[in-house]
Structures are given as structure tokens and as C-alpha cells.
């Protein structure tokens, strides 16, 4: 995470460190454990739910920001200044990601995005917006927990922040109003794109974890179905 | 050195004179091509002839009336498409061909219609275009694709002239794509552009090979199977969901079923004996829009072979007629009482195979014998 003094994302990044110290979800060791399949399905369902929630939340928030942010044709250049985790990835690289990396990237992305969203919530002007954002943050927290659960079931460690990257926060010149709104715009856009990507990521994981179809068919025939 | 210079000079003058002579006195090798706008007026001069030269004009070999002439020039007013052709002017007395014009009447291009679609997600997308009204003259199109500030190559389709293909390099991009097209012809120029996100243009091709079959011994069932479109490159990682619609041919109202996976479905509420029309559409599970409807499949549910009717009623079956527990189809419009039931052979207790009136008569006879009245 690139931290620059005066960067609004940098100021919020220090708050992100709180998240890193979340206790890791203990691996549940039940007898007759169905494996990671059901929890992957649950995670997939959560991404769909969140994507649906985000659509109405983003619409409301962009209207609050006003034009040009709420115009459908708005197509600003993406200056590299923001420190948001980017969902975009080379097609072949994405295909060949191993399960651990795939899950880790999702977990890290949503950790950062949640932190930034909480910062957004602090600045939001209307109570209604704050309520919607808070609700969304809670749901997003749930998604993080779900991904952590899948990783724990599969035996992957949760990503920890590297030592020495703890930010030293020095207050700097505040972002202009317009630039702040641009940051908000890209945050929502990136969040939406990540949710689409996660659906595809978890689809891929689901297919890999599924029992072979042939075994299921044989089971049915044995019962004279 | 002094001697060759005047000689070269003379040769040059002779050559120039020859060219001038040829231009004034011999016909042009190739006609002059000219494009003019529909509805406009045009004046065609007879090459380099004087205004008062005596000439005759012909179009595609047919003489033109002298009233169209203004001196040696041909005047055409209110050009129509029929005015297109090969115009030739001849020296009136010698019939010497002076000048030829190949005239094309057309229009400048209007704003083109451009659309892009990804039926091969995540491999890429294609864009296709057309002009809303014809120009009647040749047009050239130029397509550019921008992803942010990066220019992407749009490869021409090998078969279709108005289509080109773009390959995705990156997936899950937050930056929009901008596709611009410019069209120009001899009479004008136009352009348009569209901007879109990667996800919004995803629209698969319709499912293929939709087959509907009756289910033996089941007069209200139809088994439908189909295949994912062959153009969808990766159904494993990018699964499709399906939408099925069906109706009997005689009704206008469709029934709908949405299916989240699998490429088969059994309809269980078909009206017995009626021919059905069935279609399927596909959509990526999460993004984009529904495909067009597939080619329709037709099928009629299984019906029992008609048995030869005997002259006597069959009492064994009529006494159990009132114990039928199957609900009839939802509307009585096309429901014959004789079609109720889904049993197979004659031993099925719920099968009613005689008209209701006979059953009632038999029941009345039974009742009276039991001294109910």
C-alpha cells in the first residue's frame, strides 16, 4: 500500500491497520464436515447480495455527489493517484491463479475497501446516507468473515501486514472538494467491479471443489429412483 | 555542349505540342468519374470544348434531348438515382467522342449506427455498424477503439464487411471502452462514438439444439434439452443461466421458468394432447443481458393410443370414478373429461375412460340399488 502524506487515502490507511489485527477465524473441526463447498457457495451468495445492495447505494451516493458523477456517460481518466486495490487483471494471469492467491487477493481487496468505505461514512452529509453506508459496511464485514472462513477451511493463512509498513500519519494539505469526490467515485466503481470479479472467482473455486458429477448419478440409481 | 541544348529544347517543344493536340482531338481513355448529390443540379461541360461548340450528348448510348443543353454543356436539374450513368459528348458533325463522364448520384452519409456486444466473454467483443439510410455510392468506414488512453486493435471480420473484433487483454476493468467510427464518401463525412463498461455489453448467443420430447406414459410432461451456445468460450468459469418459455400453439400466454444451471428441464403442467412451442434464452449468471430467444422447438405430450370402444359400459371402472383425486388442468376451456388422469394401463384405479354421463347413470343405478333414496 503506497502511503503519501496529505493523500486522503493515506490518512485513512492508518485506520485500516485496525482491521489487520482482527482475530483469525478458527477452523471448525466438525465431524462429517462437508468441506469448503457450502462456505464457498455462501461466500458467492454474499457477493451477489452485496452487488445488489451496492447498486442502490451507489446510485444514491452519486446523486448526492451531483453532476458529473451521477451521469451515465461520465468517463474520467483514471489517474494513478489513488491507492485503491484494483480488480483489473490480465486474462491469462487471472485464469492461472492458484486457489490460495485467488482467495488472498479477494480478502486483501475487501479489507482495504471496507476501511475506505468507513472513511466515506464519516464524511457523508445526510443521515440516510450514513445509515445505508453503515449497513453496507456490516454486510461487507460479513463477506470478509466468510472469505476468512473458506481460507481457514482450506488451511490457508490469513494475510498479515508486513512489519515496517505501519503508517506514520502526518497531516497535510486537504484534498480539494472535486478531487475528494473523484476518489469517492473510484471507490464505488472499484467496489462494484471487485464484487463482479469475486462472483467469477468463487464460481471457479466452486467448480473445483465440487464432487464429480458421475458419483452423484450413481447414488441416485442405487435407490431405484 | 551548345549543340545538344537547342536539339533537346526542340524535342521538348514537339512533345508538348503532341500532347496538346492529343488532348484536344482524341477521346479520353477513361471517363471522368463524378459524384453528385441527389436532388441537386449539375452542369457537365463537354471537356475542353468551347461553349458554343456543336455537340451531342448521349447517356449510356441513348441520345439526350437538345433542350437539356446550355451551349455545349449538359444541364441536369433535380438529380435522381436514375441519372447515374455514362455520359458522353460527341462533336455533332463528325461524331468524334470529345468527353466522357461517369456520373454517380448519391447522398452524403448520415450518422452511422454503431453497437458492440460480447458473446464470447471473456475472450473479447465485436462491434458492428450500418448506415440508417443508403448513400447509393461507395463508403469507407474507419473504426477506432480506446480503452482509457490505450488504443486497441479491431480486427476485421473475415466474412462481414461491417464488423470487427477486439480481444480483451484485461478483465474486470473500471475504465470504459470508447469505440468511434467515421464514415466518408465522395459527398460527405459523418461519425459517431459509444462508450461502455466491460460488463454491460455481455450478451451470449441463444442456446443451441433445443429439443423437446414427449415423455412416454406421461400425457402432461415434456422433456426439454438444449446446449450452451458454442460461441461461449468458458462455461465452467463463466456459467450461464437459462430462461425457458413455453405455450400451447393455440394460446398466446407464455409460461416462464428460470433455471440457474443444467441444460435440461421437464415441463410437468402441459395440456394433454396439445402441441407446444418452446424456446430458451441464456445469460451470464452475474453480468450482462439475456440472449435472444433460441430457435423454437415443437412437441406434443404423449397420448395414449385410442382403444376400440365396446357397446357395453365397463361397470368395474365406473364405480371407482368418483374416487379420482387428480386435479384437472387449470382451465376447463380445452379440457375434455376423458383426458383427465395420468395413469398408464387399464389397471390404474384412477383412469376414467367412459363419458361422465355413463358414469353418472351407473352411479345412480348403484345408489338406487343401495336404497339411498
From TrEMBL, chain A:
Presence of the UniProt keyword Signal in the record: yes
Keywords, in A-Z order: Cytokine, Glycoprotein, Secreted, Signal
Pfam family, one: PRF
The keyword Signal belongs to this UniProt entry's keyword annotation: yes
Primary subcellular site in the record, as a coarse category: secreted
SUPFAM superfamilies: 4-helical cytokines (SSF47266)
GO cellular component: CNTFR-CLCF1 complex; CRLF-CLCF1 complex; extracellular space
Top-rank lineage group of the source organism: Eukaryota
Protein location: Secreted
One MF annotation (Gene Ontology) recorded for this entry: cytokine activity
InterPro entries per record: 4_helix_cytokine-like_core (IPR009079), PRF/CT (IPR010681)
Signal peptide: 1-27
Assembly and oligomerization: Forms a heteromeric complex with cardiotrophin-like cytokine CRLF1/CLF-1; the CRLF1-CLCF1 complex is a ligand for the ciliary neurotrophic factor receptor/CNTFR. The CRLF1-CLCF1 heterodimer binds SORL1 (via N-terminal ectodomain); within this complex, the interaction is mediated predominantly by the CRLF1 moiety. The tripartite signaling complex formed by CRLF1, CLCF1 and CNTFR also binds SORL1.
PANTHER family tied to this protein: CARDIOTROPHIN-LIKE CYTOKINE FACTOR 1, PTHR21353
Function: In complex with CRLF1, forms a heterodimeric neurotropic cytokine that plays a crucial role during neuronal development. Also stimulates B-cells. Binds to and activates the ILST/gp130 receptor.
Protein name, per record: Cardiotrophin-like cytokine factor 1
Species, as recorded: Propithecus coquereli (Coquerel's sifaka)
Gene field: CLCF1
TrEMBL record, chain B:
SUPFAM superfamilies listed in its UniProt record: Fibronectin type III, Immunoglobulin
Ranges for domain Fibronectin type-III: 206-306
Any Pfam family the entry gives: fn3
Keyword Oxidoreductase: no
GO cellular component term of the entry, any: apical plasma membrane
Biological process (GO), any one: suckling behavior
GO molecular function: ciliary neurotrophic factor receptor activity; interleukin-11 binding; interleukin-11 receptor activity; signaling receptor binding
Gene name tied to this protein: CNTFR
Family in the record: Belongs to the type I cytokine receptor family. Type 3 subfamily.
UniProt key word Transmembrane: yes
Subcellular location: Cell membrane
Keyword terms of this UniProt record: Cell membrane, Disulfide bond, Glycoprotein, GPI-anchor, Immunoglobulin domain, Lipoprotein, Membrane, Receptor, Repeat, Signal, Transmembrane, Transmembrane helix
Highest taxon, organism lineage: Eukaryota
Organism (species): Prolemur simus
Transmembrane segments: 350-372
Membrane-topology descriptor: Lipid-anchor; GPI-anchor
Location of the Ig-like domain: 27-89
Region annotation Disordered: where it falls in the sequence: 302-340
Signal peptide start-end: 1-22
The protein's name in its UniProt record: Ciliary neurotrophic factor receptor subunit alpha
Amino acid composition bias (Low complexity), ranges on this chain: 311-326
CDD domains, per database record: FN3
